[in-house]
Design a protein that fits this description.
Blueprint lengths: L2 H5 L6 H4 L39 E3 L2 E3 L18 E9 L4 E17 L2 E12 L2 E11 L5 E10 L5 E5 L10 E3 L8 E6 L2 E15 L2 E11 L16 E8 L4 E7 L4 E5 L1
Antiparallel strand pairs: 1-2, 3-4, 3-15, 4-5, 5-6, 6-7, 7-8, 7-9, 10-11, 11-12, 12-13, 13-14, 14-15
Length: 266
């Protein structure tokens, strides 16, 4: 399994992203300007019809149309140039704000194998390290939001080239959020027949830290590689519970390790 399969798919896990911003705990890292050509897909030229729109692209049973980059799923309603989401670490009960922080920036991700995408850039950094990572998303015509491609620009172990995931890698779909999730629904992120993560909807009416009617998704990394996906907070696998809120248009809380530490969107 490549390192990007372990790190790239863990971009949203607090264990990975929480870093202390040295000397300035009240400030989030900033997204640096960069060469957009680095993010272009050299293997697939833009594929347009005579009207300049993207034709339908179908992978397995999933079809993506000309608006696939405009995520309209109520739990992940993101558009290009929706920038500046700041997440900060919290811990304890009652919760207090810690020094960890990250920032997410959304932009048009271009054509990826004939699919119009939305690209999220995640930056976190400080004295303890610096991370700069990209994920390309798209929404199919049924309303499912897919991960399609990941890339590590900078991390402790060095950069990693872009890698297709999910349906673009001929694997089962890597849903970020499916259309109309229901309690008990499960989906996996797997590569070449190896299941890396299991997701399970625990509630669609969860309450947490003053927020109500949240979608709560349990996400488990199969850390020991036996595909059992233990649900305990203390291992042997890594559990995170994600909370999505329709009023904010994006998940705003994640929990890592135990219910007393996580990150929240400010």
């Amino acid at each position: 399994m490549t390192r990007i399969a372990r790190i790239g798919v863990a971009l949203w896990v607090v264990f990975v992203v929480v870093v202390v911003v040295g000397g300035c705990g009240d400030q989030a890292p900033t997204v640096p300007s960069g060469n957009e050509a680095l993010y272009e897909d050299p293997n697939y030229a833009p594929d347009t019809d005579q009207d300049g729109d993207v034709p339908k692209a179908t992978f397995g049973s999933y079809t993506f149309n000309s608006t696939s980059h405009l995520l309209a799923n109520p739990y992940v309603a993101l558009k290009p140039n929706s920038a500046g989401w700041v997440f900060r670490e919290w811990f304890g009960s009652p919760p207090v704000t810690g020094g960890g922080a990250m920032i997410l920036d959304a932009s048009y991700g271009g054509m990826v194998r004939g699919v119009k995408t939305l690209r999220i850039r995640r930056v976190a950094g400080g004295d303890d390290g610096y991370e700069d990572e990209l994920i390309w998303f798209a929404q199919d015509t049924a309303g499912n939001v897919h991960w399609l491609k990941v890339m590590v620009l900078a991390a402790e172990g060095g950069p990693e080239p872009a890698q297709y995931v999910g349906v673009l890698h001929d694997d089962p779909a890597w849903f970020f959020v499916p259309n109309a999730p229901t309690v008990g629904q499960m989906w996996y992120h797997e590569t070449d027949g190896v299941r890396l993560y299991r997701h399970r909807v625990l509630s669609t009416t969860a309450t947490f830290r003053g927020h109500t009617n949240l979608l709560r998704v349990q996400r488990i990394l199969d850390e020991d590689g036996n595909e059992v996906f233990g649900t305990g907070w203390d291992g042997p696998d890594d559990r995170d519970d994600w909370y999505f809120e329709t009023s904010t248009g994006m998940f705003n809380i994640t929990i890592d390790v135990d219910p007393d530490r996580g990150m929240i969107r400010f």
